[in-house]
Model the fold of this input.
Amino acid sequence: MTFTTAARRTALIAGLLAFTAPWAAAQAWPEKSIKLLAPSTAGGPPDVYARALADHLAKALGQPVVVENVPAVGGMIAAQQIQRAPADGYTLLVNTAGMMTITPNANPKARYQGADFTQICQGVEAALVLASHPNLGAKNYKELSQWVQAQKAPPTYSSYSPGSPAHFLGYQFSEALKTEMTHIPYKSSPQQITDMIGGVAPLGFVQIATANPHIKAGKLVAYATTGEQRAPQLPDVPTVGEVGLPQLATTVWFGFSGPKNLPPAIVQRLSDAHQQITANPEFKTRMLNAGLSVSPDLCGDRFLQKMNRESERWARIVKATGFVAD
Done:
């Protein structure tokens, strides 16, 4: 054997080893605990999904899955942590619609898009509900639209957070009615609900899980929900499409992602595990009790394509409102 032939064979073996090493590592994964970042405080809706997901993933993968709460800047800090994490499957992320489709358009410091991550699957979603204090006097959407258009001063609408879908749906609502409205932002759903019930800021888009008990008690009037289908918690309330506002259709969703370039074998294991988890009756019940519905099969490229469509939608509205996150 000549030296040249031996050198070529050595190089070939080295190349094969370099090619198969990541595959072998992915096959052995996971060999230690996994960290799952949740972009909310403990008990917040993303955290509820994260902890249920962690419980079931730990059983499916045979390693502990530890939730770490990173509640800051519309999910931006959690997203940026994942961008810096090694693509080894040991640091993963619960993402949100706001984090992936609004924050990149509203916060110049975000500097990321959905394609800068490995998008695994969408997990759960929930519609919002357009509601008001009963003293407004409107019993249905037609009467509400007439009330809004009859006001001499711009009427107000509230949201549970500036830069949230609730904020921008209010803008689209005023756009549809060709009526100027003033946005009143809150820092959480409970704060928003408190002032709606108190008549301080009587009208707004609010999370169904927070609003539903007050709607059932007659303390709020519900006009329309924002899903494509009627919300199971409010089956008698029409959708925005049914009242003539199909452009307002949206859901707040939470999903599952990791750093960019996560090995395909790990992505496949996580995707398969997630699909099995979301089909689990106990998981479904746990989510329903939190006001969340399990999403249909929406993984990989299809999940990313949905993000991209929503990002284009919110980019237009963010620009129209002039909103910039601080």
Notes: The mean pLDDT is 91. The domain at 128-248 is CATH 3.40.190.10 (D-Maltodextrin-Binding Protein; domain 2).
